[in-house]
Amino acid sequence: MLSEVNFLAAFLVGLLGGVHCVGMCGGIVGALSFGLPESTRQRPLAQLPYLVAYNGGRILSYTVAGAAMGGISALAMHLLDVRQAQLVLQLFAGAFLILMGLYLAGWWLGLARVEGLGARLWRHIEPLGRRLLPVSSAGHAFALGLIWGWLPCGLVYSVLIWSLSAGSAAQGAWLMLGFGLGTLPNLLLMGVVAARMSQWLRKPWVRRLAGAAVIVFGVVMIGRSLWQFA
Questions:
Q1: Does this UniProt record's set of keywords contain Transmembrane helix (predicted)?
Q2: I need a surface site. Which of 18, 20, 176, 182 has the fewest CB within 10 A?
Q3: By residue range, what is the domain housing residue 92?
């Protein structure tokens, strides 16, 4: 039950944070499309394999990072008392869900500050991505997605910090996979469809409703944890 709630909440965070994702990664997707042969650029469906490959690589990077963070939490559980570690991790997850909900609803933007955490690492990775441009094949696009999946992004890093509470590498990967899939509609569906979806996601009531839903997930998780370990 807990893993399903985490997956759904992470998916909502990715989906409702889609406007932010377009701002961060939309230029990269545009550069990818612009570098394709002219005959491919003129046919939107012909670009689809490249976009799928790019986003597949990006989401794989998210999933691997989530597995690493979940593995760290699993190690902590082995080093500490398991029952106490589970309680701390679940309370941490619930609290972070509440912060995520506040962020999505636009009531508190403090999570965006974690973006600077990966700036130093990105300075070493970013040149590798530039070498792959222009993209000449779906394999190229996949490799580019693997690299750009590490782009400094407050939303991604916030979910990564949340995945520290997963308790295992598999659960951490599952959580980040849910987030990555949530980001797909805004980055995979280009043109009119993406524009309309972004316009809908910008509506204050939509963001507040989604934020409130994620906050409820967090409160329920904290309540269940305290009840279970009482």
A1: yes
A2: 20
A3: 2-229
Question: What's the pLDDT at 118?
Answer: 64
Residue 38 CB coordination number (10 Å): 6
**How deeply is 26 buried, as exposed, middle or buried, from its count of CB atoms within 10 A (0-12, 13-18, 19+)?**
middle
Q: Which long-range contacts (CB under 8 A, 24 or more apart) does 128-134 make?
A: 133/31, 133/32, 133/35, 134/34, 134/35, 134/36
Q: Residue 211: which of 95, 94, 91, 100 has the closest Cα?
A: 100
Question: In the chain, how many domains are there?
Answer: 1
Choice among 30-34, 129-133, 158-162, 168-172 with the minimum mean pLDDT:
30-34
Confidence band for 91, pLDDT divided at 50, 70 and 90: confident
pTM of the model: 0.77
